[in-house]
């Protein structure tokens, strides 16, 4: 019996930060378990050992903070700090992390210099042997220090460029700037080698490299950041690369290949409209076909249902495709959507709502619905009826086109 | 890396400045069902754990007391434990049958053994006599019986205890919550959807009117739908003007469409072989649902297109975890779902069901998870309305932390916050901003009633915590607002307020001059509480003096709480769910032939009605002689009366009454007194002098048969047995007996005290009982349990809910829930007072009478 309960209950308080993927996998840890047991086994007696006192004190602090009783919290915090003075080394090793959080808080409140000092102190914190997790933490602290160096660097840069200074002053300022660049680049370069999401760090680093004319270095950093398989999938990495290449005036094929990957990761990104235009302009037919898919994929997402640009692009492109005798592309794109787009985009409710809120959107959607669902579609019928009432000119041409070219009727032919 | 979990103070924050977890008429109305259906907290850790010395107080360690449980099991369910073995051994034992001859040496006659046992269990009795036969039998059979039970049942019991204990620590069935809010056609109207009933199988639709300044008002009474299983989760959603309610039970899922008028329209019901663990309604397409079961299957379900399985994997995603809990929700793409298990979250594409989707979250290093951390809840935070937040956000809750993830940036959480809840966070809700450009409140509810509120801001960018997170008052925090009660009442109230939180629904009423938030909470006891939170300008920087989290009570709320409390205290205490049958087979087997037919009839009747077998069904007991009982001090037991009165604090009144009453009829009283004294002394003299001439009944010692005691044994079969007694009793004693009987409550009131524990819900429906006749309005039996002392809500039912009769058609029993008679309140009170006078009604007659009979015997 005891083995069972040991196994069920046994949990180790030590080393909380160990990742769960380690073998053997521990049982689920329930923080409220001890309370459960205490209420049963203690018979009202509460143990008063030191560890318990501190944990109770910590609970009080948390409770007071969550109830926004700041005064009370600070009183408890004082007691807590007193009790912590003689605590084991393990807790003291937490100090860098606390410093980092404090620095971030200071940064958030615009106290950059204090934050910098804090990070410097945290970096030089030594207590006993450094554990692996602490090593990572120190790297992170260094990276944030690098970020602050970059911040100073960019401030200096605007100073240098905006003020008319004599040669000597400019020279000194540039020297100063350069030293900041060196400090920052060492730390930033270190952190972006570790797999992770380092958007701000990468952007800062690339900006500095670009400033000093190291285009190849910048491109390399961005390419690694986007294509390294060890890194978690990150759409921003591809966007940074695309923007960099666009600025460089890279060939369109290259741009398309970058955006193709982004399309696979985040088809709803607003840059996809740009991607559509790129594909439309391209000479290759497969790109033209992809252009339709890109538009349809944007409109699949709930955040983009009322994106008027996407709808007008789609209406225009459908017309172009049908005129260009590529009706099968439309049918292909439609086949995976025909069971849910009608309710998602072209319901009677939405027709009424769109017509009331945004007439142009309603017209564009009505045209698309007419092409995809035929003239019997509720959305199309409602909008064309309403348009007829107010004698909207475009209605007639729209109706005519839909009658002739909708993909339903052409299937039957 | 989580870089954004530093919070900053915004200008405004939601504070419970003037909130009160009061219960208004809502709490009242909703708890009504429990008058006929008392809630009990069922299993607690105290019931399972070993309560001995805790060896290591520093380390929490639970030991499940299997031996004690096995002991209880053997005592309480001996028929199950030993029955099969008995069947095997039956051919070697003669239990009184005539066919088995004694010639067969393999057959042992047990008649004497059983007679020794005589139906009494000598458990714990130091004077229990063991005959040599019994000793021999237990020595021989003990090992066989013990081993079998231990081997076969021990394992099963162990397994059962393990699952019970796990469920006690983490009851995952109520994940997602069973309270839903459906906004109505008018901006300040809506409906609450929630289950009640002991089995949580009654789904209620309660119309509520919100007010910018006053308390929300329940419009009429809820309409009910009785379901076949317990409601675990209620999900509501209004898409494209269509209000839908989806309900998850253990093996059924169902979908209703709510019309603004008329009853909810059932759309479809899904039956599952394996237990369903999660259901969610699509925020994109009306009527589309995601359902998942313990088999690891996730299906997309819509009434139009039916079921489509899009994922099936009995194994967990990241590492092996024994839990078969699964959860499914939607994403920003209507054809892509998220599937969660305890180890992570994964995308599942409905267009390519066979594909194994990418992981969105995993318990591991990316999110810097702790050891033993597991996913407890996952929720998609996007809605069809354009929110200030990106529609790609997902919430993941573990027992330690809360994570916000963007589906475009999988695995690395955008935000991590240690919620510090001391119960599993199984409820979460993101609310629209209280005013334009305000941060969005995100509520987190723990099963233990703990609540947290966060404020999320950040349009288009990474979401951030705006303003410090807050802990909201939980139900138990409202305890000081109630009047001080006597210990029993206090405990009842505490238990009730501590009931697990099984539902959470918050509403931000649109168009309020000062932004407020209404928070409805459903407890497992079936109460719905609410509190109102006002948005308060940030004052923390200047004046730390004001206590922002002070909870204030409005007078109306206090009054309402008192009413609710009053009804709560009138709920009869819960009866033990099962009482072991203590009548012995002895009586059945050796019954005389003429009684057998009667017994069988009684048995059949009880079985047909599905109720517990009562002593009355088995014909009167053979006349055995009860021990002498306490005799009252004369016909008028003044001392007890006075004590009783002073106990009820009516001592002075009793005294006054006594003084006034004693003057006039004193003479007559004294005369009567003398007569009874005489007669009793006479009878007692006679009984002793009878010694010589009574020959036959003498195995029975000549004690005075005490009818008083007899009454308590067979109170319900009084009428029957009375005549029999009269036949057996010498004529001289009959007068004494009648005098005694006169002291006792009349048979009618005795009937009133028949416990109806067999079927608690039918208690109020049995109009045919004679005891009920004294109550007016017996046409409306349920009024006693379902009442509304509030005149306004009562009239509201008739004026505003004219078509609600049709609502009840689903549940014919509830049609008589309301009584239009003005005698309404008095009905309620009279009924309850009768209950209070007769505390004996809670003792199941058979089991309950046993101790009375047994106790005096101990000394013999």
UniProtKB/TrEMBL annotation, chain A:
GO biological process, one term: transcription by RNA polymerase I
Pfam name, any one: TAF1_subA
GO cellular component, one term: RNA polymerase I transcription regulator complex
Protein's name according to its UniProt entry: TATA-box binding protein associated factor, RNA polymerase I subunit A
Protein source organism: Sarcophilus harrisii (Tasmanian devil)
Source species taxonomy: Eukaryota, Metazoa, Chordata, Craniata, Vertebrata
Record gene name: TAF1A
TrEMBL record, chain B:
Segments of this protein annotated with the region Disordered: 616-635, 658-715, 749-777, 801-860
GO molecular function terms noted in the UniProt entry: RNA polymerase I core promoter sequence-specific DNA binding
InterPro entries cross-referenced by the UniProt entry: TAF1C, TAF1C_beta-prop, TAF1C_C, TAF1C_HB, WD40_repeat_dom_sf
Residue ranges constituting the TAF1C helical bundle domain according to the UniProt record: 491-685
Limits of the TAF1C beta-propeller domain: 245-382
Composition bias type Low complexity, residue spans: 679-697, 706-715
Biased composition regions of type Basic residues, renumbered to the chain: 664-676
Cellular component terms per the entry's GO annotation: fibrillar center
Domain TAF1C C-terminal: 713-783, 825-860
Protein name: TATA-box binding protein associated factor, RNA polymerase I subunit C
Sequence ranges of Polar residues compositional bias: 749-769, 801-818, 827-848
Compositionally biased region (Pro residues): 620-630
Organism expressing this protein natively: Sarcophilus harrisii
């Amino acid at each position: 019996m005891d083995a069972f309960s040991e196994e069920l209950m046994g949990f180790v308080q030590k080393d909380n930060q160990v990742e769960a993927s380690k073998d053997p996998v521990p049982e689920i840890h329930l923080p409220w378990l001890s309370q459960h047991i205490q209420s049963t086994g203690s018979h009202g007696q509460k143990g008063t050992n030191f560890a318990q006192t501190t944990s109770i004190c910590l609970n009080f602090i948390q409770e007071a903070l969550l109830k926004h009783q700041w005064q009370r919290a600070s009183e408890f915090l004082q007691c807590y700090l007193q009790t912590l003075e003689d605590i084991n080394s393990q807790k003291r090793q937490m100090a860098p992390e606390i410093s980092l959080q404090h620095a971030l808080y200071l940064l958030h409140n615009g106290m950059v210099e204090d934050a910098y000092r804090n990070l410097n102190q945290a970096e030089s914190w030594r207590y006993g042997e450094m554990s692996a997790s602490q090593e990572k933490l120190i790297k992170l602290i260094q990276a944030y220090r690098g970020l602050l160096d970059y911040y100073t660097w960019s401030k200096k840069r605007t100073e240098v460029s905006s003020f008319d200074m004599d040669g000597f002053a400019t020279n000194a300022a540039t020297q100063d700037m350069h030293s900041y660049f060196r400090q920052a680049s060492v730390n930033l370069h270190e952190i972006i080698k570790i797999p992770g999401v380092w958007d701000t760090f990468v952007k800062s680093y690339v900006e500095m490299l670009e400033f000093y004319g190291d285009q190849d270095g910048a491109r390399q950093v961005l390419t690694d950041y986007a294509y390294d398989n060890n890194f978690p999938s990150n759409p921003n990495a591809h966007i940074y690369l695309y923007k960099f290449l666009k600025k460089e005036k890279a060939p369109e094929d290259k741009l398309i290949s970058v955006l193709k990957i982004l399309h696979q990761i985040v088809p709803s990104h607003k840059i996809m409209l740009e991607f559509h235009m790129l594909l439309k302009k391209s000479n290759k037919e497969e790109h033209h076909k992809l252009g339709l898919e890109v538009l349809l994929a944007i409109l699949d997402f709930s955040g983009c249902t009322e994106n008027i640009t996407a709808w007008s692009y789609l209406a225009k492109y459908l017309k172009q495709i049908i005129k260009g005798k590529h009706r099968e592309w439309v049918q292909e794109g439609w086949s995976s959507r025909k069971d849910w787009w009608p309710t998602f985009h072209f319901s009677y409710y939405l027709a009424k709502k769109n017509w009331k809120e945004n007439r142009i959107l309603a017209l564009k959607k009505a045209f698309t619905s007419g092409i995809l669902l035929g003239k019997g579609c509720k959305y199309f019928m409602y909008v064309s009826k309403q348009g007829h009432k107010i004698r909207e000119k475009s209605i007639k041409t729209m109706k005519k086109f839909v009658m002739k070219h909708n993909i339903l009727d052409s299937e039957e032919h | 890396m989580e870089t954004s979990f530093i919070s900053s103070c915004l200008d405004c924050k939601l504070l419970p400045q003037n909130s009160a977890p009061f219960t208004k008429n809502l709490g009242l109305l909703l708890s009504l069902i429990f008058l006929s259906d008392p809630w009990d907290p069922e299993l607690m850790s105290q019931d399972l754990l070993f309560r001995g010395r805790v060896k290591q107080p520093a380390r929490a360690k639970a030991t499940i007391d299997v031996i004690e449980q096995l002991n209880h099991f053997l005592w309480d369910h001996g028929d199950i434990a030993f029955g099969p073995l008995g069947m095997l051994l039956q051919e070697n034992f003669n239990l009184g049958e005539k066919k088995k001859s004694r010639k067969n040496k393999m057959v042992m006659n047990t008649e004497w053994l059983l007679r020794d046992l005589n139906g009494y269990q000598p458990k714990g009795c130091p004077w229990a006599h063991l005959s040599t036969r019994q000793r021999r039998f237990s020595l021989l059979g003990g090992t066989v019986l013990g081993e079998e039970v231990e081997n076969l049942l021990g394992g099963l019991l162990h397994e059962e205890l393990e699952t019970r204990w796990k469920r006690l620590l983490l009851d995952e069935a109520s994940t997602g919550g069973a309270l839903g809010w459906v906004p109505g056609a008018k901006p300040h109207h809506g409906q609450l959807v929630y289950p009640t009933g002991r089995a949580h199988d009654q789904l209620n639709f309660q119309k509520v009117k919100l007010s910018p300044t006053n308390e929300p008002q329940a419009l009429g009474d809820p309409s009910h739908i009785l379901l076949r299983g317990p409601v675990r989760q209620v999900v509501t959603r209004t898409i494209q003007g269509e209000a839908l309610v989806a309900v998850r039970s253990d093996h059924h899922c169902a979908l209703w469409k709510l019309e603004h008028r008329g009853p909810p329209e059932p759309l479809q019901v899904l039956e599952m072989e394996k237990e369903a663990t999660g259901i969610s309604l699509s925020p994109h397409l009306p009527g589309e649902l995601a359902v998942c079961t313990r088999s690891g299957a996730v299906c997309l379900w819509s009434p139009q297109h039916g079921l489509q399985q899009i994922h099936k994997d009995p194994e967990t995603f990241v590492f092996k975890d024994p839990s078969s809990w699964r959860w499914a929700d939607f994403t920003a793409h209507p054809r892509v779902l998220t599937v969660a298990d305890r180890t992570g979250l994964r995308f599942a594409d409905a267009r390519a069901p066979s594909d194994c989707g990418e992981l969105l979250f995993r318990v591991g290093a990316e999110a810097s998870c702790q050891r033993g951390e597991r996913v407890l809840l996952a929720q998609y935070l996007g809605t069809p309305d354009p929110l200030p937040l990106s529609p790609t956000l997902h919430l993941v809750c573990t027992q330690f932390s809360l994570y916000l993830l963007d589906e475009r940036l999988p695995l690395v959480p955008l935000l991590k916050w240690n919620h510090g809840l001391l119960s599993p966070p199984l409820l979460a809700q993101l609310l629209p901003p209280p005013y334009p450009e305000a941060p969005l409140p995100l509520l987190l509810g723990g099963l233990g009633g703990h609540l947290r509120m966060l404020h999320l801001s950040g349009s288009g960018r990474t979401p951030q915590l705006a303003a410090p997170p807050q802990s909201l008052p939980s139900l138990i925090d409202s305890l000081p607002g109630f009047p001080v009660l006597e210990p029993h009442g206090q405990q009842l109230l505490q238990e009730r307020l501590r009931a697990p939180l099984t539902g959470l629904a918050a509403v931000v009423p649109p168009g309020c001059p000062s932004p407020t938030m209404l928070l409805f909470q459903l407890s497992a006891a079936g109460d719905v509480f609410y509190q109102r939170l006002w948005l308060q300008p940030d004052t923390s920087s200047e004046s730390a003096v004001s206590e922002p989290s002070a909870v204030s009570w409005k007078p109306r709320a206090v009054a309402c709480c008192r009413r609710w409390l009053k009804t709560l205290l009138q709920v009869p205490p819960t009866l033990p769910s099962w009482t072991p049958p203590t009548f012995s087979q002895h009586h059945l087997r050796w019954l005389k032939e003429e009684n057998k037919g009667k017994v069988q009839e009684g048995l059949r009747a009880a079985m047909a009605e599905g109720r517990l077998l009562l002593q009355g069904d088995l014909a009167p007991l053979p006349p055995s002689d009860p021990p002498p009982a306490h005799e009252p001090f004369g016909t008028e037991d003044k001392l007890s009366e006075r004590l009783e009165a002073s106990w009820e604090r009516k001592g002075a009144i009793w005294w006054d009454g006594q003084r006034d009453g004693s003057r006039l009829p004193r003479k007559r009283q004294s005369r009567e007194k003398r007569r009874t004294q005489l007669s009793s002394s006479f009878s007692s003299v006679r009984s002793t002098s009878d010694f010589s001439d009574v020959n036959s009944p003498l195995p029975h010692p000549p004690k005075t048969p005490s009818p008083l005691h007899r009454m308590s044994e067979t109170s319900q079969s009084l009428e029957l047995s009375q005549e029999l007694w009269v036949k057996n009793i010498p004529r001289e004693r009959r007068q004494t007996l009648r005098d005694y009987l006169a002291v006792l409550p009349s048979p009618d009131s005795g009937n009133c005290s028949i416990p109806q524990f067999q079927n608690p819900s039918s208690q109020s429906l049995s109009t045919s009982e004679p005891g009920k006749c004294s109550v007016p309005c017996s046409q409306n039996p349920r009024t006693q349990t379902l009442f509304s002392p509030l005149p306004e809500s009562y009239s509201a039912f008739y004026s505003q809910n004219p078509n609600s009769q049709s609502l009840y058609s689903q549940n014919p029993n509830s049609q008589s829930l309301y009584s239009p008679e003005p005698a309404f309140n008095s009905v309620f009170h009279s009924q309850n007072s009768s209950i209070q006078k007769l505390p004996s009604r809670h003792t199941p007659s058979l089991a309950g009478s046993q101790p009375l009979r047994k106790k005096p015997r101990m000394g013999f």
